Amino acid sequence: MKVIAGLGNPGRKYKDTRHNVGFAALDKLADDLGLSWKEGKKSLIAESRAGGEKIFLIKPMTYMNLSGEAIRPLMTFYDVEVENLMVVYDDLDLEPGSLRLRLKGGHGGHNGIKSIINQLGAKEFKRVRIGIGRPPEGDSVTSHVLGTFAPGDKKAVEETIHLSAEAAEAWFTKPFNEVMNHYNRKN
Q1: Residue 27 CA to chain centroid, in angstroms?
Q2: Domain range for residue 43?
Q3: 124-150 tens-digit pLDDT
Q4: Which of 35, 60, 164, 168 can bridge 25 by disulfide, Cβ–Cβ 3.0-4.6 Å?
């Protein structure tokens, strides 16, 4: 089994914010696959199959900083190894329109990733990082991540969201290294 988690904050208020690009990527993937979301424990879940393997898409409804509290119960219930988890999320250190896939790593200051690492007790999960850029000098990080994209960045970010969904789907049947080599790109 594989689990693909998209990080974001629930509610209409946060829908188009920078912090919700992980949700947007999973919505795109679910739409491309014709899947519908169902309520799970602290999450929305969609299910698919590929190559004889069950695939779960999950959007934590716990708010970003507690994402691990929604992902861990699913992983535990289905006995999914941490290496079979992919997390799609926003990254301040990448420019809008940039996409980076990684095999594993630390939290890099991202509270959603920190929560997942703390809940799972491991860092060895796949990451799909969507660039949102840093705030201008003097602006707060919180205001930036909870704000919307500038009109000039919107098209590049939408393209990156589509590519993120494609990359996640490619991982259904291809080794992650191959997917990573194909989809890593800069703005």
Answers
A1: 11
A2: 2-183
A3: 999 999 999 999 999 999 999 999 999
A4: 164
Q: What is the pTM of this model?
A: 0.96
The CATH number of the domain holding residue 102 is 3.40.50.1470
Tally the domains of the chain: 1
SS3 89: strand
CB 73 within 8 A of CB 119: no
Q: Would you call 19 a catalytic residue per the annotation?
A: yes
pLDDT (average), residues 98-106: 95
Kindly state the tokens that stand for 162: 């589509």
Q: Any alpha helices (H) in 46-174, and if so which ranges?
A: 67-77, 111-120, 141-145, 151-170
| Selected catalytic residue, list 19, 110, 144, 162 | 19
- Is 78 annotated as contributing to ligand binding? no
Q: Is 184 a known ligand-binding residue?
A: no
In order of 38, 61, 97, the CA distances from 41 in angstroms are 10, 9, 32
